[in-house]
Design a protein that fits this description.
The protein has about 240 residues and is mainly alpha-helical. The protein folds into two domains: about 80 residues, no CATH class; about 150 residues, no CATH class. It is built from twelve helices and four strands. The strands form two sheets. The protein has a two-stranded antiparallel ribbon with strand order 1-2. Strands 3-4 form a two-stranded antiparallel ribbon. Helix 2 crosses helix 3. It is elongated, with a radius of gyration of 26 Å. The two termini are about 25 Å apart.
Amino acid sequence: MTLTGRKCKVNWTKSGMAKENCGLGILNLERFARALRLRWLWHEWVSPEKTWVGTKTSCDDTDGLLFAVCTTISVGDGNRTSFWHSGWLQGCRSKDIVPNLFKITRPKNRTVAAALQRHICTRDIHRAEMLALVHAHEFFKLWGMLQNTQLNQNQEDQIKWKLTKTGEYTAASAYKAQFIGNVKASKVQRIWRAWAPPKCKFFAWLVTQNRVWTSDRLQRGWPHNPSCPLCRSASETAFHLLV
């Protein structure tokens, strides 16, 4: 937070945004920790010889969703790709395409090769569960998407990180991916590129956020004079006062 006299001017979420997103670029530890956790999922693919591979990691389902969005999987023999948990089916995870069918399927850890062998994935549907119309709809949807799936026994499954030119995972790209979709303001960048003392840049940034204590922001019961102290003919706002 940006504090003056124990009063918060800009909330932490805004301050943690990148500078091109009108923030201060302060490291968001929660999102950075998520970016680092994706390294576990990446090494499960590229370094299967590591001793910890196959054990339960600290990654949650949100981590898995972010990993699926940031990667492209090319299925070869299907022996390394998880049928349900990898984003191999048209860039999506099977568990997200047919969530209700996924809930009644046992087991949930089959590879693509094992699931497609003699249509084992259809036999994994738990018979004791109450099947509904939604299960039938999702089953035929999944079945239709699998019709064009062909395995190549002479080629291993490949994974590529979308956000780098080399196709390799980096924590920096995983961190920035969590800010995709936020509004970018190129004009705000001029503040940080200017040749001025940091406190002047910071004050200019507060002006863009409308977080300086001008009269228009003191109309919440604080005693103040609403007129501009320079012209005395208009209400005092940050824009009017400075421009």
